[in-house]
Design brief:
By secondary structure, the chain is mostly helical. It is 67% helix and 0% strand. The chain contains 6 helices and no strands. The longest helix is centred in the C-terminal third of the chain and has 14 residues.
Length: 76
């Protein structure tokens, strides 16, 4: 995601957001890592918290591991 390297994180989130619920070609993990690297872990947690129960059930390990890591980084 070149937007992150150019300091355009909000644009990266906006562009990637429509893919977050898809299994293939999902940009969510990339966006989450860009937000984390920019000190915006709370924003990354918010993206995870938008996922529905079906997404969480299909990706439980990935979801919970990343959510806990980001909550810890955010001091929550």
């Amino acid at each position: 995601m070149h937007w992150g390297r150019q300091g355009r994180l909000d644009e990266a989130v906006e562009v990637g957001h429509p893919t977050f619920d898809y299994h293939d070609a999902c940009l969510m993990e990339g966006v989450i890592h860009l937000l984390y690297k920019s000190g915006r872990s709370d924003d990354a947690v918010a993206i995870l918290d938008e996922r529905d129960a079906e997404f969480v059930e299909e990706h439980p390990s990935w979801f919970h591991t990343n959510r806990l890591w980001l909550l810890g980084d955010a001091g929550r």
